[in-house]
Amino acid sequence: METEAKSGKGDNKLLTVMIVMLTVILLIGTAAIIIILKSSKESKAEAPNIDEVIESSVDIPELTTNLASDDYIRISFKIQTDSKKAKEEMTKRDFQAKNIIIEQLSEMKSQDLKGKKGKEQLTGQLKDQLNDIMQDGKVLDVYITSYIIQ
């Protein structure tokens, strides 16, 4: 009889421990799901819609310049900033932006600009250099809107 009573107490302790562990696992899983859902909603809310992108973007009209490979390039850009205030600053600094673009292109060969990778490298370098001159905001992205090499 004593052994049956002892094994009953052991079973109850094991059952209690299992229930506590399952409860803890469920609580951790629920907390993780809530955190993931909140972070995904915040990231979606932070992404600007197309109207906001256009309101904070500056067009750099078509430029024609020489490349290091003695080819000519005709190219234009749209520069996306993080705010209307930054857009105003970039509009005022358009001459500096054009200068940065021309300097960057004059160091490149037509081979450097071929393919997606070359264009991404150019826009990335331009973004970094344009951010260096910005004071009231920052450049989020640089888009090539037209592109011809002759």
Q: How is the CATH topology of the largest domain named?
A: Tetrahydropterin Synthase, Chain A
Query: What is the strand content?
Result: 15-25%
Which whole number gives the mean pLDDT? 89
Residue runs with pLDDT of under 50 for 5 or more positions? none
Q: Which structural class do the helices and strands define?
A: alpha+beta
Describe this structure in words.
- This protein has helices spanning 2-46, 50-55, 84-92, 94-106, 115-133, and strands spanning 57-66, 72-81, 139-149.
- The chain is of the alpha+beta class and 150 residues long.
- The protein folds into 2 domains: 1-47; 50-149, Band 7 domain (Tetrahydropterin Synthase, Chain A, 2-Layer Sandwich).
- Strands 1-2-3 form a 3-stranded antiparallel beta sheet.
- A hairpin with a 5-residue loop joins β1 and β2 (72-81).
- α4 (94-106) crosses α5.
- The chain is elongated and about 90 Å long.
- The mean pLDDT is 89.
Question: Which terms summarize this structure?
Answer:
150 residues; alpha+beta; Tetrahydropterin Synthase, Chain A; three-stranded antiparallel sheet; 3 strands; elongated
